[in-house]
Design a protein that fits this description.
heterodimer; A: 73% helix; B: mainly alpha; 5 helices; 82% helix
Chain lengths: 95, 137
Amino acid sequence: MLQLIARLLAVASVIVETKTENEDVAEILALAGLLVRQGDAARQKLEDLVVQVETMVAEDRDPTADEMMEIRADREALSARIQGVDLSSDEESGE
Amino acid sequence: MKPTALRQAQIVVLAAFAVLVAGCAGLNPLGVAETPAQKAYAISASYNIVLESAAEIVEDPTAPIELRRTIQRTEARTTPIVNELEDAFVELTTIRAEYRAGQTTEERLQLAVDNLESWVDRAEAALVDLATAVKGE
């Protein structure tokens, strides 16, 4: 699995850096599909998000300011969690 | 979080990352969005999904310290960019309302749309930056 992930990352990095379409796209999609099919919380959230956006498109509407600010509030909380961890000490290590 | 859980979190981010950047319409919120505002929403919410995994790793005392520091540094740089995306969205919403009320020009509305599209591109790059940091090695 780790080799698969490494391969996926290598292909993804190339795609991101070059922003070009080639046969690797099909490969990365297949690999991503394999990972995604394993099932996890992020996949579910992505699926839910896709449905949300599809619904907006179907309703021919843009997100509301309230919808966007809700995301903003969630992000501020997550950011505070990340920046609230003191990693300045070398002792703060699990290695 | 146990090392196995850490690995799972990284896999989760990788999956999200790969799907988002590969242009897969099946699980790519950005791929189904049509308008600049819908794209802004898709990127902003997708960023949060990656950020959740990032937070889990940073808070995990068993995770490699350099990985945690890299994520923390990257997040400090990328989150403000996504916040700017939302600010551009709010600005567009305001100007669009003014335009519909006949209080501003079409040129000003177009400038706001162009500005949002510009931030969509930058926020997409920020999303990739964060996901790349989270992937670790």
